[in-house]
């Protein structure tokens, strides 16, 4: 079995991709403004994430499950995302994503990018329509941190061997726990609390931070 040198874990919406997936769903449902306002407040840490997610998902009730095909057509990878992932994987790293979004879209992105680990929310579907409910465990800030710890342990790595990247308040615990924690084009509350901050929407800007860290000196 190949020895893994490090683990990168990143958020998906507004980090791996340029969009907020749930906002795209809201636009299709005709409640785009309402959903986007709740998203903004949640990412700024003004609302409890789980409560905010359930509130937004209720607004999506009645959408056909085929809506995810439409959403997929409107999602774009952040500049440098694929290049960063490919570079790290070629150098013996593993990559995971933790998302407050949904497996129905995140799994497609993970397959395209060659991502090793995925944790996201799952929407309930009955009679080929969204019910407005979420199935199972909600991906909160605590769950994101747990996944960072679990995946690194599975790979035989310490937290010092990890990098975490995100933009919202939901990402802060994992950013602060990782060996290199990066606020990426993040909300002010995240920028102010993260060890590192990148303001340009280019994920390849992450690479020098990794290379300059102790991770590269082993």
Automatic annotation (TrEMBL):
One of its GO terms (biological process) is L-serine biosynthetic process. The keyword Isomerase does not apply. One of its GO terms (molecular function) is L-phosphoserine phosphatase activity. Its EC number is 3.1.3.3. Keywords: Amino-acid biosynthesis, Hydrolase, Magnesium, Metal-binding, Serine biosynthesis. Its cofactor is Mg(2+). The keyword Electron transport does not apply. The active site is at 11 (nucleophile), 13 (proton donor). PANTHER family: PHOSPHOSERINE PHOSPHATASE. Belongs to the HAD-like hydrolase superfamily. SerB family. This is phosphoserine phosphatase. It comes from Pilibacter termitis. The lineage of its organism: Bacteria, Bacillati, Bacillota, Bacilli, Lactobacillales.
